[in-house]
UniProtKB/TrEMBL annotation:
Domain of life: Bacteria
Ranges for domain Acetophenone carboxylase-like C-terminal: 541-714
Domain Hydantoinase A/oxoprolinase: 230-515
InterPro entries associated with the record: ACX-like_C (IPR049517), Hydant_A_N (IPR008040), Hydantoinase_A (IPR002821), Oxoprolinase-like (IPR045079)
The protein's name: Hydantoinase/oxoprolinase family protein
Domain Hydantoinase/oxoprolinase N-terminal, first and last residues per copy: 17-204
Amino acid sequence: MSRTRSGAEPDRRRRTIDIDVGGTFTDLVLTWDDRRITAKAPTTPYDLSVGFLDVLTDGAEQLGTDIDELLPQVELVRYSTTVAMNRLIERKGPRLGLLTTEGHEDAILIGRGAQWTDGTRISERRNLAVQQKPAPLVTRDMIAGVRERVDSFGQVLRPLDEEDVRRKLRRLVDGGARAIAVSLLWSFANPAHEKRIREIIREEYRSYHVGYLPVVLSHEVVGKVGEYERTMTAVLDAYLQSSIKAEMEQTWDQLREHGYRGSFLLTHNTGGSAEIFKTTASRTYNGGPIAGLMGSYHIGQALGFRNVIASDVGGTSFDLGMVVDASVRSYEFRPIIDRWMVGISMLQATTMGAGGGSIASVNTLLGNRLEVGPRSAGSYPGPVCYDLGGTEPTTTDADVALGYIAPDGYFDGRMPLDRDKAVEAIRTTIAEPLGVSVDEAAALIRQVIESTMASAIQREVHLRGYHPEDFVLFAFGGGGPTHVAGYGADVPTAVIFPQAPVFSALGSSVMDVMHVYEQSRRILFLNGMTQELTTDHEAYNAPIRDMVAQARADLTSEGFDPDDAVFTVELDMLYGGQVQVKRVSSPLLEIRSQEDAAAVYDAFEKEYSEAFSPHVVNKPGGAYIESIIVKATVPQEKLELPVHELGDADPSPARRGSREAYWPDLGRRVDTPVYAFDRLTPGHRVEGPGLVEAEFTTIVVPPGRVLRIDEHGLGLLEHAVTAEAPARAAVLEGARA
């Protein structure tokens, strides 16, 4: 029997595996007919397939079988990974070569005007004296310009000089290039030269030779205008391809060796997932946080919540995303991967260095200011209490020292913690330099890290023009339920799931299979002078037909029926005289009449007005399409949430004892009741102070808060006054209708 209580009924016909590889733990959600089993195992950075097999073995054991019997019966494996992020942080990619149009060799080194701020925190940008551009992934001596030129209409102005290509290619290889990125000017308008360069590379360095060179063409990874962004996306793909390929091959080989014969899907930062053979390296970046965001979207829909803040507190990071008006169609305006702007569409998600492994220290240069993060102890050596060699206190050490986490119950009792070492590390490193007690120092560590998280939530919500009270907060990850009372103070209700520690893996289990295709097309859609809509419908329809055809071919090759897919169109549009592009959802797949064209324009004006203001609608300037995006979505089974009658409020049947814990609001240690989350039933209320233990996390209920179990078996953490107010309860119930 599963050791975790399910908060949702899985589809009875599904047998799927969903894996989320984080910086500290690897999470599993195994859907097996009418059961949903969860498991966690420490991430193994030296070989991710080891942690993958460990967590899979744990899941199989809960079913009473082994992976050799389990995997042949599994229909689908979905995988979210941070390999791309980790490899970029470590800068462990191969030496690259870049072939570009002659005269444009320095484009990516010059970059955009604000390139030095890309990927940096606000506090870092303020210190101008130490700011500098990131060290390039491809050095200037490894960039070669080839003789060719295509104009913005796709016309060849200068034919490709093939001998020049061969000569410069050999120079790059002799210089140590082990992967080649090719990015020519306006190649998306006419890719013939890029394709021919790849043929030349294959003629010179054949794929069956030991020295095989991976080749990435910019028009294939980003078919849009923007030389710098398109080139950097190609460079990042070339840089990450070999390392991700190696990691994924090891995992893929392990699956095949143990009898798995189904598809292996990777989560994309676009909000969908696709076959490993149809996924570029850059699209896997930030896959785990996006899986959590998409899970919040789908489960929020099932609960009736239109506005959701998704917060994931892991071992190394704090991930944040927003569902607004039952939609996640909010893309990064300037999509950044590490320190570089890219051209691919990415859902908005914020990641910061704040988690259970965040290291606390005293900055003596700033008047003994306590700082927590962004440095992390990771999974090895981990927090001091892990007793694996860590010496610097972390957030988890503070939780253990305060009595919130039971040393003998961590990680379902399979990972005993050394509280004495955690206390001693906090004493010598934090408490004594600050002249406070250990309890006060540990509480300060929590306060600092939770304030950092709360500031991130406030910044995201307020800067997008919303109010926290209009949202509910989904708290997940191993540390989410432990810290949500501190970082979610402005949001009235926090929702805590039984599967909170593996929520990102749960999110991927309800994600749709989705491919995204993009093309730049400059189309005058509304004439500013005459106010007439375009009559050139083919300019709109032709690229959509091409992308739909490509999508159908890709889905067929992955084993999906393209007739089951839902095709939708999004448009990057703007008004003449303005620079702000708005991505809008087109109501039509193709335009066949002027009425259709009017429907498309009306959709743009409506979304543009809502995003900015009706006062900035500039019809006299005309309206333009910049890019066309086609999404091919194969819907997957979603969660069905059970509904139970609410019972007695007294949680005594779920009580498993008590232990001393320090509560800053009370200024002292209190003998605090401890409850088992899997024994709490709908209607139960835990009034703070209290601790509620689940398999892989602990819910901290401080004084003045109430945790109540709703009709779906989910925990709702609220202020005591809010929980008692009938009006607020009615609002929440109405939101679920």
